[in-house]
């Protein structure tokens, strides 16, 4: 198991900037699983950070190494849940969570790398491996501890069996049309109005029917930028807004109401991601504007409570925040049980590449629909991946390369590994 601290200097152009994170350097705590098999295949995974915390995240991933070395590859790929259970169940490391924070994100990176390896060995993209898997096996991949009051294994099996009806027709449609996306690229808080207008118009020309703006620092600025965006895209294109956890509950309600005349589609992360009752109060206070959250929700248990409390209209999974594919399967099943649409977060290096697989599985073999469902798209850093996302007419094209689309080019790792990669070594030397 190899680990790498990969960082990109995105803060210098204010790419990714928002009200809570004004200077993010998009980063990946990256892991590669290698085996002694003659096929030479590797499992690649990562979790997303925004800069200096990446060294902590890499160290957390490295702490999991003893659970990987010497493991039987065929058994791992046949049952990735076995690895997930072992990593989550390490009692001394679990004490740092449990099932939250840096250690849980590290688990997600390693588990995702195992799924990448499993899909490569199966010769399939992960979305297809999951969509065609036996529902009984999929249920075996889910940890139902703490979920049984909201979702039982029997209910999950019923949802998956029902969800498979019409799979072949939907797969044909997916391969022809793709999965709908929306773009955040015009909406970073640090962008000028001119850049916002140019990128918003380009988004519409590229076929997107929804864009997103960052808000929450200054109400007058938000109103001006919202008017600017609305003038650029017209009335038929949805504009979502994202506060990135900036507000208290009352402030969130007041601010969103102030923006309501410009018809925002949803307000994202209006307050702390841990505040379930706060989100419920915001949802009641800002309707008909929808409430969306999830990119910082720490585990399936918090998602369960958000759904039970009626605290969100749109659930946003993140491929790298929770404990990997297995836990995201649980969250997708919860969303299906409660009838809440899933619109994943993908604002970060490699997240678009990963989460497309989960949404496509959900469409093909669980929810059966793309109505009111879109995957976030950010036009940053895709060139560093060997199988980058392809957007056509505002839709994600279904990837066909075997694996989880997580593999970075070796040259990109060599250039942007911190602090000894060629870019950072030269950059740091130039500052001395």
Automatic annotation (TrEMBL):
It holds the Pfam family MR_MLE_C. It is an enzyme of class 4 (lyase). It catalyses: L-fuconate = 2-dehydro-3-deoxy-L-fuconate + H2O. Its EC number is 4.2.1.68. Keywords: Lyase, Magnesium, Metal-binding. Residues 1-22 are annotated as: Disordered. Gene3D superfamilies: Enolase-like C-terminal domain, Enolase-like, N-terminal domain. Residues 1-15 have a biased composition (Basic and acidic residues). This is L-fuconate dehydratase. One of its GO terms (molecular function) is magnesium ion binding. Its cofactor is Mg(2+). GO terms for biological process: amino acid catabolic process; carbohydrate catabolic process. Residues 193-289 form the Mandelate racemase/muconate lactonizing enzyme C-terminal domain.
């Amino acid at each position: 198991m190899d680990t790498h601290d990969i960082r990109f200097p995105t803060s210098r152009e204010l790419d990714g900037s928002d009200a809570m994170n004004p200077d993010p350097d998009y980063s990946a705590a990256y892991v590669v699983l290698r085996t002694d098999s003659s096929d030479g295949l590797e499992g690649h995974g990562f979790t997303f950070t925004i800069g200096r915390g990446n060294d902590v995240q890499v160290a957390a991933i490295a702490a999991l190494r003893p659970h990987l070395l010497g493991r039987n590859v065929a058994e791992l790929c046949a049952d990735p849940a076995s690895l997930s259970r072992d990593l989550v169940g390490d009692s001394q490391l679990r004490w740092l969570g449990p099932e939250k924070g840096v250690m849980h994100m590290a688990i997600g990176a390693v588990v995702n790398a195992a799924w990448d390896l499993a899909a490569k060995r199966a010769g399939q993209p992960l979305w297809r491996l999951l969509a065609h898997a036996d529902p009984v096996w999929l249920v075996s991949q889910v940890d139902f501890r703490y979920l049984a009051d909201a979702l039982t294994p029997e209910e999950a099996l019923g949802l998956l069996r029902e969800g498979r009806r019409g799979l072949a027709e939907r797969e044909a449609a997916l391969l022809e049309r793709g999965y709908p996306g929306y773009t955040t690229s015009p909406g970073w808080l640090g962008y000028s109005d001119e850049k916002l207008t140019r990128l918003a118009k380009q988004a519409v020309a590229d076929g997107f029917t929804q864009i997103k703006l960052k808000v929450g620092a200054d109400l007058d600025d938000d109103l001006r930028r919202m008017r600017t965006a609305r003038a650029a895209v017209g009335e038929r294109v949805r504009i979502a807004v994202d506060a990135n956890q900036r507000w208290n509950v009352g402030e969130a309600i007041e601010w969103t109401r102030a923006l309501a005349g410009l018809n925002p589609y949803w307000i994202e992360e209006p307050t702390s991601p841990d505040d379930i009752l706060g989100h419920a109060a915001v949802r009641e206070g800002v309707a008909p504007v929808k409430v969306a959250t999830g990119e910082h929700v720490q585990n399936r248990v918090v998602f369960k409570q958000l759904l039970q409390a009626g605290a969100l209209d749109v659930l946003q999974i993140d491929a790298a925040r929770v404990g990997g594919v297995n836990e995201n399967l649980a969250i997708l099943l919860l969303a299906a049980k409660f009838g809440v649409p899933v619109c994943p977060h993908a604002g970060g290096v490699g997240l678009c590449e990963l989460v497309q697989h989960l949404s496509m599985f959900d469409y093909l073999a669980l929810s059966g629909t793309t109505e009111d469902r879109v995957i976030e798209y950010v036009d940053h850093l895709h060139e560093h991946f060997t199988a980058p996302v392809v957007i056509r007419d505002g839709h994600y094209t279904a990837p066909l390369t075997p694996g989880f689309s997580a593999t970075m080019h070796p040259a990109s790792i060599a250039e942007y590994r911190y602090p000894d990669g060629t870019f950072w070594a030269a950059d740091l030397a130039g500052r001395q």
